[in-house]
Structure formats: structure tokens, C-alpha cells
Design goal:
Length: 422
């Protein structure tokens, strides 16, 4: 792991802590995390027994994905940070160095990219939730490396996790989406812990297997490869808004058009998006904040109001209660361009037009959005996030060489007064 790779890993660790910490400060997450009151973030295993490790993984992953603000990987879209970091933190021994967590995270990201190439876009288009399928396997591989320090055993754990593969896009726009991610991470950790015990596990990630036919494997993943690559890291993105990433380009295009000349209420706004964006972000009149995260008209309308809380009204709920948002949303119509790339969108108002593409924007080491997410968190957690983001090489090395026990067991209780959410 070179310096640049370590920096990318630490930015994504900081992002995981920021979005999970924000979610964990809200009362709604407590019942979903299935581990009682949230006393600190991230949750640490109560003991080293498998049940405690599983619970911590489920709790941390559920919270990390709750706001749909976690990082994202393009290709077969998935959220690597919300599955890999919880798996690693749950499985880490107290003496494990942060550097080793980062190395395993990067291997997990590389594996996610490899698996995405094995599945192709048809996997997501068929209705599979890639974070719960691709992400599950990548998390099992990363956790297996951490636990066993052996790539063959980690591979075996990934195959074991594969037979539990599930997760569907039907739950998008509901709180079940984050639970689905939490359960997938728990399964990944369980498989990683069992990887050395199940010695006769066949390779099921091949096109001719029953699993391969069901989930659409086009080719078997390459074994014993170096999965960390610049190409894989280039597919990572840090989200600016707590909503589906397919909505980011339309929102940014609307904001850019509005900044050049304000768009008045009542003006017709036409969004031109890809078929995938229209299929995923299909909610026209959301009744909950979870639904609003997948509503292009409401997200664009909220953006035109000046992005009141820096998050399109999705943290304080104003996206749903603002009458101005509702009026502006009724001005928005959506057109599908089948030739448009997934992360590109255009906004038209009369003769004015702005197109934004996120396809070539490398945001894997973007710090501004992470710092914005962390600004309202408790002091101890905010300082931990800032330590992840340090660019002083001596300070970064000291942090990387620190043991997990002294860093990821914070005593701070997230404030009940923190702004939130669903």
C-alpha cells in the first residue's frame, strides 16, 4: 500500500465514520441496529465470540447505509464502505493496526471491482442489490484476509459467503434497504470466520454453477491476483448528498443552471437522464424521507431552494414538509435518453441547458464532502475523522500504525440533539 492508496483508504474510512455517526445520533436507527441503545460509534464487539462480532458488523453496516450517504463504486453500483469497514472493524483484534485495516479495505475494493466485471451491468438491471451481493463477497474476502492473513482462506470465505447471496432493489426507498446491507455484512463476517473450517467448499462463482446462472456470472473471478489497482480506486466516489447517486448529476446540473439565472417557481424544468437513473429513482411523490432519496423531482426541487441544510432537506425532513418543494417538484418532468451514460444528466429550462457528468470525476480522495458531513458530530468522533484526513505524513503514519483498540472504541455518546433524519 503506497501513500496515495493509504490516503484514499483513510478518506473512505473517515466517510464511513461520518455517515454512520450521523445516522447513529438519531433515535430511529436504534431499533434497526438490533443491538440496544447506541452508546458509541462505531459499535465494538462486546467480546470476541462470533455472536458479538456478527452483531457489531450488522449494527455498523446498517447505520452506515441508513442515510444513503455512504461511498459508492461505479460499474455495478455498490457501496463498499458500508460493508467492508464494518466487517473489518468487527473482526479486528484490539492490537490490529489501522494500516492493516486499510490494506484489507483496498483489497476488498479491488475484489468488488473484479466481481463487478464478472457480473456486468445485467446483474444490477435484473434487480439485484449489488451492495448486498457484490459488497457481501468483497467484505467476506477483506475480512478473511484480516482474520486468516491468507488469500486462499479468504477466497474460501468469499465462496462461502456467495451461497448466502441475496438482496434486491425492491426495497429501495424503504428502511429495509439499510437492514439488507447490515444482514449482508453479518453474513460476510460469519463466512470469514468459518473460512478455515469449511475445507471442502467448491468454487461456486463460475458461470456454470447454479449460483452463477441465478445471479448472472459471465466469467469466474481471477484467483490469486493483486486486486488493488488504480482502475478499481478510480471507480470510487464520495457522495455529496444523502440520496441515490443516480440523482447527483441531475441535482448538480439544476444547481448550476439556477446559479447562472434563478429558476422561478412555475417554470417548466426538464430532466434528461439515463434509463438506469429513471428506473432506480422512480418515486414521483414521496411519502417518507427514504422514498425522497429516490425522487428526482423532489431532490431537484429541494436543490433549487438553496440546499437549506447542505443535504437537500433529507436530514431534517424539510424536503417533505416544504410547500415550496412540492410546488417546484410539480414543475419537473423527466425524459429518458437511452444513450446517456448512467452518471450524466441534463437540465433544460426554456432554451437554457446544463449537462453534468460524474463519469470521469475522480472523487475517491475528496475531503470537502467528508468534512461537511462531520461538522455536526460530537467532538471526539469529529477529531477521529480529522485524524483520518490528515495530510501530514508523520501524523498519518502514526495514525496508521495505531492499534484499533485505542481508536475505534470511543466513549462519546452521540448527542440526541444532533440534526437528523428519517
Amino acid at each position: 500500500m503506497n501513500r496515495e492508496q493509504a490516503t484514499v483508504a483513510l478518506v473512505h474510512l473517515a466517510d464511513f465514520l461520518a455517515v454512520g455517526g450521523t445516522a447513529a445520533s438519531g433515535s430511529e436507527v436504534r431499533s434497526l441496529m438490533a443491538q440496544g441503545p447506541v452508546d458509541s460509534w462505531p459499535q465494538a464487539p462486546i467480546s470476541r465470540d462470533p455472536g458479538s462480532i456478527y452483531q457489531a458488523a450488522v449494527a455498523n453496516a446498517t447505520a452506515a447505509h441508513l442515510l444513503d450517504w455512504d461511498d459508492v463504486m461505479l460499474g455495478v453500483p455498490n457501496h463498499p464502505g458500508s460493508v467492508i469497514w464494518p466487517a473489518l472493524l468487527a473482526c479486528a483484534e484490539p492490537s490490529t493496526a489501522v494500516r492493516r485495516l486499510c490494506e484489507c479495505f483496498l483489497e476488498g475494493v479491488g475484489m468488488a471491482a473484479e466481481l463487478a466485471g464478472c457480473l456486468g451491468p445485467g446483474h444490477y438491471a435484473a434487480g439485484w442489490h449489488a451492495t448486498a451481493t457484490v459488497g457481501r463477497l468483497a467484505a467476506a474476502y477483506a475480512a478473511g484476509l484480516l482474520v486468516h492473513d491468507d488469500s486462499d482462506t479468504a477466497w474460501n470465505g468469499m465462496q462461502l459467503a456467495a451461497i448466502t447471496s441475496s438482496g434486491f432493489t425492491d426495497v429501495f426507498g424503504t428502511s429495509a434497504k439499510s437492514v439488507q446491507v447490515g444482514l449482508a455484512t453479518g453474513a460476510a463476517v460469519h463466512a470469514a470466520l468459518l473460512a478455515a473450517a469449511v475445507t471442502d467448499m467448491p468454487d461456486v462463482l463460475v458461470p456454470e454453477s447454479s449460483l452463477g446462472r441465478v445471479i448472472g456470472i459471465l466469467r469466474a473471478p481471477v484467483r490469486n491476483a493483486s486486486y488493488v489497482s488504480d482502475d478499481a480506486l478510480a471507480e470510487l466516489r464520495i457522495k455529496e448528498f444523502p440520496c441515490c447517486y443516480f440523482a447527483h448529476a441531475p441535482v448538480l446540473a439544476a444547481q448550476e443552471l439556477n446559479s447562472s439565472q434563478p429558476i422561478e417557481t412555475g417554470e417548466s424544468i426538464v430532466l434528461v437522464v439515463s434509463a438506469s437513473a429513471a428506473r432506480v429513482c422512480k418515486v414521483s411523490r414521496p411519502g417518507t424521507i427514504d422514498e425522497a432519496r429516490f425522487s428526482l423531482p423532489y431532490l431537484v426541487a429541494s436543490a433549487l431552494e438553496g440546499d437549506r441544510d447542505g443535504a437537500l432537506g433529507l436530514l431534517d425532513g424539510s424536503v417533505l414538509v416544504s410547500s415550496e418543494t412540492e410546488r417546484r417538484a410539480s414543475d419537473v418532468s423527466i425524459q429518458i435518453d437511452p444513450d446517456l451514460p448512467d452518471m450524466t444528466a441534463s437540465v433544460h429550462v426554456g432554451e437554457r441547458r446544463v449537462t453534468v457528468s460524474l463519469e470521469d470525476v475522480r472523487a475517491g480522495a475528496s475531503e470537502r464532502s467528508v468534512r461537511n458531513k462531520a461538522s455536526q458530530l460530537p467532538t471526539e468522533l469529529r477529531e477521529l475523522i480529522h485524524a483520518c484526513l490528515s495530510r501530514d505524513e508523520k501524523a498519518q503514519d502514526q495514525f496508521l500504525d495505531s492499534p484499533v483498540a485505542g481508536i475505534f472504541t470511543p466513549s462519546t455518546t452521540p448527542s440526541e440533539q444532533s440534526r437528523r433524519v428519517t
